[in-house]
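input
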Amino acid sequence: MKKISSFILKVLSILTVVAQIFCGIAAASVIFANVAVLFVSGEAATELKKYVLQPSNLSKGMLELSGLNALLILVSIIFALHALRKIINNIAESNFL
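output
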């Protein structure tokens, strides 16, 4: 029973690391998208206004703020996953099982 519990805790620890990596990639993508929206110009700017901003009555600033909101959510998820991994590792190292 102790070996099974130890194995499950190791798998959970590895899964939290994988989830942290995916959230980090998503956060980097959100940062890239926000920077790209800031520097869009020319025909791409007219397409952005035509397909994204006009149908939903968004402004460019609101689009940037929503991207920052998504970034804050992803960063908080990364911190929560890090804390969860530390909790799992503390349970695995202790004699609770």
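quick obs: Residues 2-38 form the longest helix (37 residues).
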